[in-house]
From TrEMBL:
Residues 1-14 have a biased composition (Polar residues). This is GAF domain-containing protein. Residues 1-41 are annotated as: Disordered. It holds the Pfam family GAF. The lineage of its organism: Bacteria, Pseudomonadati, Pseudomonadota, Alphaproteobacteria, Sphingomonadales.
Length: 195
């Protein structure tokens, strides 16, 4: 199955730099796991990149946003050089560059479906200094994502919540709820998988 999509018409983030007081710095994009080829094959098998406008996935992201009191939420599938928002609340669905993706970092930091990757204030986190998603915008300060883990233990992407204001780290009950919603999203992806 071919999943190649043309590059979106926005700027090429591979050359993004931002001037700082000390000169020019360059954002370090997320690295790739040695398991990346296996993970990409799992994404292909899942059929997730073919999903558009599924009402149940939309309901899950709306619930995540409401329960965690964030302005945005998404089911993000990370594949090759892109992250694909296949369901979203408060932002458009579609492909976004993996180079600037917080989900690209999150899939590396989560080993089980119980893990939640949380960034209380992305502007203050040195891992995201000079991230082009943060440059000149007030939209992204808080991020939390629960992994979408398939039956083989491979992370297809994240169910994430995002807000424009920094927040305290998620409380244990909030982490559990986000993980529960991510598991429901995986079940829905399995139901939608092509035969």
């Amino acid at each position: 199955m071919s999943l190649a999509l043309s590059q979106p018409p926005w700027q090429d983030l591979s050359t993004h730099t931002r001037r700082t007081r000390m000169g020019v710095t360059i954002y370090e994009p997320p690295s790739r796991s040695p398991e990346e080829p296996r993970r990409e094959r799992a994404v292909e098998r899942s059929g997730a990149l073919l999903i558009r406008n599924d009402p149940q996935l939309q309901a899950l992201v709306a619930e995540a946003s409401a329960v965690l009191h964030t302005s945005m939420a998404a089911v993000s599938i990370v594949y090759r050089d892109w992250q694909y928002l296949i369901a979203a609340e408060g932002m458009p669905t579609g492909p976004y560059s993996r180079r600037a993706s917080l989900c690209g970092h999150a899939i590396l930091a989560t080993d089980t479906d119980e893990d939640v990757f949380c960034i209380p204030d992305a502007w203050r986190d040195p891992r995201f200094a000079d991230n082009p998603m943060l440059a000149g915008t007030q939209l992204l300060r808080f991020y939390a994502g629960a992994p979408l883990v398939d039956d083989d233990g491979l992370t297809l992407g994240m169910l994430c919540v995002i807000d424009s204001t920094p927040r305290d780290p998620l409380r244990p009950a909030e982490r559990r709820r986000l993980s529960e919603l991510a598991r429901l999203a995986v079940k829905r992806l399995e139901q939608l998988r092509p035969a």
